[in-house]
């Protein structure tokens, strides 16, 4: 999946088996940033990535899965 350029906060992904999600935050200040994770029982978060570059800042939680 192509990298996503975020200008605002990203909503977390809640689904069974979250795979191959790539997110790039390259500017601004985010409360939280997620490159893919799940809280569903028995689900997996595999091969996801969160990339921070440039002047990007995350004040809270972050996860790449």
Word description of this protein:
The chain is mainly beta and 65 residues long. The protein is 0% helix and 34% strand. The protein has no helices and 9 strands. The strands form 4 sheets. A 3-stranded parallel sheet has the order 1-3-7, with no helix packed on it. It has a two-stranded parallel sheet with strand order 2-6. The radius of gyration is 11 Å and the shape is elongated. The two termini are 15 Å apart. The relative contact order is 0.32. The N terminus is likely disordered.
Number of strands: 9
**Cα end-to-end separation:** 15 Å
Radius of gyration from CA coordinates: 11 Å
- Helical content band: under 10%
Low-confidence stretches: 1-8
Structural class designation: mainly beta
Q: How would you sum up the major sheet? A: 3 strands, parallel
Strand order of the largest sheet: 1-3-7
Overall pLDDT metric: 80
Sequence of secondary-structure elements: EEEEEEEEE
Q: What is the strand content?
A: 25-35%
Shape: elongated
Count of helical segments?
0
Please give a quick description of this structure.
This protein has 65 residues and is mainly β.
Helix and strand arrangement:
Layout: E1 4-5, E2 18-19, E3 22-25, E4 29-30, E5 33-34, E6 45-46, E7 49-52, E8 57-58, E9 62-63
Parallel strand pairs: 1-3, 2-6, 3-7, 4-8, 5-9
Question: What keyword list fits this structure?
Answer:
65 residues, mainly beta, 3-stranded parallel sheet, two-stranded parallel sheet, 0% helix, elongated
């Amino acid at each position: 999946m192509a990298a996503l350029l975020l200008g605002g906060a990203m909503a977390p992904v809640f689904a069974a088996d979250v795979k191959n999600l790539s997110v790039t935050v390259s500017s601004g200040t985010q409360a939280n940033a997620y490159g893919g994770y799940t809280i569903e029982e028995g689900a997996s978060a595999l091969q996801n990535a969160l990339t921070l570059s440039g002047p990007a800042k995350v004040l809270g939680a972050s996860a790449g899965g």
